[in-house]
Amino acid sequence: MVIWLCCGVRRWRPCPGLAAEPESAPKVKGVGVVLGGGGARGFAHLGVLKELDRLHVPISCIAGTSAGALIGGMYANGLPLADMEQAFNSADWDQMLSGKTTRSSVPYDRKRDDYKNYMDVTLGIKNGQIRVPRSAINSQEIDLFIRKLTRDRSFDSFDQMPIPFRAIATNLSNGDAVVFDKGPLALALRSSMAVPGVFDLVEDQGRLLVDGGLARNLPVQEVKGRCADHVIVVDVSGPLLKPDEINSLFDVVAQTSNIMVDRNVREQLARLDKRDLVVRPQLDAYTSASFADNKAIIALGEAAAHRMAKQLSAYAVSPEEYARWKQSLVRPAIPMVDDVHVQGTTAFVNIQSIEKAVEHKGLAEPIDVARDKLRDIFAQGDYDQLDYSLDSQSGRNVMTVMPVEKSIGPNYLRFGLNLKGSAPGDASFTFLAAHQRTGPTAPVRRGAMSYRWATANYSRPSSINPVI
């Protein structure tokens, strides 16, 4: 059992499942915060935390799911709210959510392909079968963004964080909730927000993990009575679609997911009592995909908490006591890298090229520099992910790179269509196909070739025949 001293004694009771605590167990104290999932609507969590900070409400512990895990985990790790807000406001969300790396890292031959109107979808051929990716968006850039803001910190127990923390993911094999309470913080956050079919799922200890909202979108039970007596819940989940709003296959799939989330949210809210508070920002104008509206959504979260300032102030402490609590939130430092290793083997790509690209010169460098090297390698287009770990070995920070080559390779197909027209009515249609193959003796990326499959010309003379 870990005891956290700060504005009273706080304990996170490690009781498995729903097992009841013994009657003799000491009572917990303090206020816990539960931050729910909701995609971009989750930016409102930051606004609520800003208002709690203004009111001098210390937080005993945080549990979050999806977007709530992302923001709650960063704050629990000691990242100041101002730094978090600046990072969100300056992020290129369109680029990050496109699944592509920054254009400056893309090799020339791949940039050239952009002008040939190839579709973004890439098909793979493996063992004589056509394969498609497991997600619509590659998460490499998102992974690097999360790692940057978490400072690549790892804990033997999340109770050791400046604010004790839990993150929730869903086991895709059986639908059970997976509670992250230790290990790399970035892994916990990415697992919790891995929306099925949208972002890459996460493989961890033999489990396939996806967004925690499917199992426990508001993890009240991870806080209530375990690390806090009182709970402040921030619910940013979207409403169920109305019958007249369900008009397509995508609407049906979305509603199915919404029903699962709504059901487990109601189950968790039933655990609250009259001492607890629920903050529901007014987010009707925004969806889970409204990332470009992060500033407005943050403001709405702050406004929602401000409207409840009187109730929230019941948990406030004196300015002096709050200042002591804030001082305990040690700001995480940016780690330095002393050495870089490449671990594992690849079947279809030349791993020596990775070793050469990340070669370390012997002088310590900020990990941001090492991440940029990984970004350049990933831009070659041969990997699903370039994962890495950062470990302390004999007083030195060693970065171990673990390349994960594309599961749909080694052969890839891309298709496109060019359309050209002229004033008289001539139209030229060119179907394009590109084939790429990778191999262990080849460079990291081999050039793609385009084939003109067919060209069709269509002409219809224009004429005006006035009728009198």
Protein architecture, described:
This protein has 468 residues and is α+β, with helices and mostly antiparallel strands. The protein has 2 domains: 31-99 and 137-328, Cytosolic phospholipase A2 catalytic domain, CATH 3.40.1090; 336-405, Ubiquitin-like (UB roll). It is 28% helix and 25% strand. The protein has helices at residues 44-54, 67-76, 81-90, 93-96, 108-113, 140-150, 185-192, 213-216, 249-269, 294-307, 309-312, 319-327, 351-357, 367-378; strands spanning 3-5, 9-11, 31-35, 61-65, 123-126, 129-131, 154-155, 165-171, 177-180, 183-184, 202-204, 207-211, 230-234, 277-279, 336-337, 339-342, 365-366, 383-393, 396-405, 411-421, 427-437, 449-458. Strands 3, 4, 8, 9, 11, 12, 13 and 14 form an 8-stranded mixed β-sheet that branches. The protein is globular. The chain starts with a strand and ends in a 10-residue tail after the last strand.
The largest sheet, given as strand count, sense and whether it forms a barrel, is: 8 strands, mixed
Note the overall shape.
Answer: globular
Strand residues, percent: 15-25%
**Overall number of domains:** 2
**CATH fold descriptor of the largest domain:** Cytosolic phospholipase A2 catalytic domain
- Tally of individual helices: 14
The CATH architecture name of the largest domain reads 3-Layer(aba) Sandwich
Q: Whole-number radius of gyration?
A: 26 Å
CATH class identity of the largest domain:
Alpha Beta
CATH superfamily of the largest domain: Cytosolic phospholipase A2 catalytic domain
Distance between the termini: 95 Å
The structure class reads alpha+beta
